[in-house]
Design brief:
This protein is an alpha+beta fold. It contains 7 helices and 6 strands, in the order H-H-H-H-E-E-H-E-H-E-H-E-E. Helix 1 packs across helix 3 and helix 4 packs antiparallel against helix 5. The radius of gyration is 36 Å and the shape is rod-shaped.
């Protein structure tokens, strides 16, 4: 019998380089992260939706394989999500990175409508300030409505004499100031609408209120054109007494119906949330 041999082999040496496996996994995930960040630099609707889902999963503990939370158990189990997908789920994207032409058509239209609303509100404030500076704000009302920026001017003793369509000097000055502000905009059409009350008129020049209202609107258009507003942006319409804003049963109501409306009309459909803002200028 041999008694000098040892049972079993020499003891295994401890592997001190196992940390390299974890380090290599971390490098792999970092590479995947940078690849995904590059891939989502140009975001479309589908990628944005996937990102949204990924972020929800990230905050509910489903980032790594195994379906467990990083903070709880660090992974394991049977989730089949790859490291690439996990990295994509946590890649940050801010709304500023999305350009208008990359948004869905409905979102682009809504963004354009909001920008236009801001432009009209800014123009309204400038016009109100300008009218106050010149002391021409009496009986003038400005508002941003669904059709656009509207300037309403009561005609009596400001724009026209009774039954006439020739602008008075102070009326010409008022319309000139309005034109100076509106010409700051270069894209919106400008409509001028003439309105009267229901009292019949019959003169040698104007047989009815239709013609009088149209002639008054045309006189205002001529002044606006003189303020360097291109003629292809201007139009004049006479409505007669067909669109009253107040009751014609009283003298005050009739005076409010005798008016000229200058409208900078929208190019975008107004959003349903837009509430008309009206400011009578003191």
């Amino acid at each position: 019998m041999s008694g000098g041999g040892r049972r079993g082999g020499a003891p295994k040496a401890e592997n001190h380089e196992r940390w390299l496996l974890t380090y290599a996994d971390m490098l792999t995930l970092l590479v995947a992260l940078f690849i995904c960040m590059f891939a989502v630099a140009s975001v479309d609707e589908e990628k944005f939706e996937q990102l949204s889902i990924g972020l929800q999963q990230a905050f509910t503990g489903k980032v790594l394989t195994g379906g467990g939370s990083i903070r709880k158990d660090g992974g394991g189990g049977g989730d089949t999500k790859t490291p690439l997908a996990a990295a994509a789920a946590i890649a940050p994207v801010t709304p500023e990175a999305i350009k208008d032409d990359e948004l869905p058509s409905q979102a682009r239209a809504a963004a354009a409508a909001r920008r236009e609303e801001d432009e009209l509100q800014t123009l309204k404030r400038r016009l109100d300030d300008r009218l106050r500076e010149k002391g021409l704000g009496r009986r003038v009302e400005t508002s941003v409505e669904r059709r656009g920026l509207v300037v309403r001017v009561i005609t009596d003793d400001i724009l026209f004499s009774s039954g006439e369509s020739v602008l008075q000097p102070k009326g010409r000055a008022l319309i000139g100031v309005v034109g100076q502000v509106l010409r700051l905009d270069t894209k919106h059409p400008i409509t001028v609408d003439g309105h009267t009350d229901t009292v019949p008129i019959s003169t040698g020049r104007y047989p009815d209120n239709w013609e009088l209202s149209a002639a008054r609107a045309t006189s205002v258009v001529r002044v606006l054109a003189g303020e360097s507003i291109p003629g292809n942006r201007l139009s004049a319409t006479g409505y007669g007494s067909e669109e009253p804003r107040r009751s014609n049963a009283t003298a005050w109501g009739r005076s409010r119906n005798r008016r000229v409306e200058i409208a900078l009309t929208r190019l975008q459909n107004a959003a349903p949330s837009i509430v008309p803002s009206t400011t009578p200028t003191p």
